[in-house]
Amino acid sequence: MKTTIDLILKANGIDFEKEYQFCDRKWRFDFVVLPITDKIAVEFEGGIWSGGRHVRGIGYAGDLKKYNFACVLGWRVLRYTQDVLDKTPMQVYSDIRKLQGDRNEKIKLDR
Question: Can you state the percent helix, strand and coil of the chain, rounding each to 5?
């Protein structure tokens, strides 16, 4: 289903890289928005209704470590469920643009 997001982002001019390793621990984000210096990451949480890895004890704890470490490094991580991918995939695009707009507003204010 990530291919739907691929198509939406490409069609709307958002460059991205898939499976981006953001630290030495070999943790990866599903997507990062380019340029990397913007530090916008996108994660899709699978199996939340079926008892998948992301909601079981050790998997959930591992995800918390990953996301907290990403925040310490300055990453802004957008997280989505399969429902968003199935029903409202444009939400991902919209949220990315909001984060990019936030950055652009800061740049305008500094000038």
Answer: 55, 20, 25
